[in-house]
Structures are given as C-alpha cells and as structure tokens.
Amino acid sequence: MDGFADDPVALGIADARSMQVSRGSGRSVYVSATAYSAFDPGNTNRTATGTLLRRGVIAVDPAVIPLGTRVFIPGYGEAIAEDVGGAIRGNRIDIAFESHEEALSFGRQDLEIFVME
C-alpha cells in the first residue's frame, strides 16, 4: 500500500472527524468490527453480491451502510460493502481478510470508519 492508505485527508475526506454525521458524503460511523475470511468454517469464497470474498470487502447491515458503498477503515484502508451476514445488524461490520489467521488476529474492535460516498 502507498503512504496515503491510512490517511483520510489524503483520500479526500477532509476533517472527517469534525464533520456532522449525516446520510451524505464523508460521514463517519462508529462500528463494532469483527473479521472473517473465505477459509473460516462455514464460509464460502463468494459474497452476498456474488463477488469473490477478498481483502477490501466488508459485510454490513444494508440499512446502515448500503451495499456498494465505499468506506475507509483506519489501519485497513479502503473497502466496499459487498456482503451481509446473519449476525451483522446495526452498527456492526465484518472485515474480510485473505486468511483465517489474519481474521483471528484482528479480533473484535470498536472503530470509527468513514463513508466515502
């Protein structure tokens, strides 16, 4: 990744922490984040939208973050909402990783993410 991958301002999300939260562009959302991979027990290699499960995909509650939405996750980078899950409700997301080990290492974290569109 380049040096801008973890910088919301460099990605055009100027002063995102001070923005008023809204349904509009550049809003921030506080979420409880967990991680998953195609190699976790019971998972397949396809998302709910039919794309390959890979790094850069998140599972969301579409009522909170619509499918197809691009987000920025500090420490992870850009991701696209392409998946849903039975336990993903409200302000909860599941972040895709390339391996089961990476997903386990991430654990569960409370994060502020930035909606880019």
Structure, described:
Helices cover 6% and strands 30% of the residues. It is globular, with a radius of gyration of 14 Å. It has a 6-stranded mixed β-barrel with strand order 1-5-2-4-3-6. The longest helix is centred in the last third of the chain and has 7 residues, at 100-106. Residues 11-24 have low confidence and may be disordered. It is built from 1 helix and 6 strands, in the order E-E-E-E-E-H-E. The chain has one helix at residues 100-106, and strands at residues 28-36, 57-59, 70-73, 77-83, 92-96, 109-115. The two termini are 21 Å apart. By secondary structure, it is mainly beta.
Mean pLDDT: 84
Describe the strand arrangement of the main beta sheet, using strand numbers: 1-5-2-4-3-6
Q: Give the C-alpha Rg.
A: 14 Å
Range of helix content: under 10%
**Bulk shape:** globular
Structural class: mainly beta
Beta-strand level of the residues, as a percent range? 25-35%
Give, in order, the helices and strands.
EEEEEHE
Major beta-sheet overview: 6 strands, mixed, barrel
The number of E-state strands comes to 6
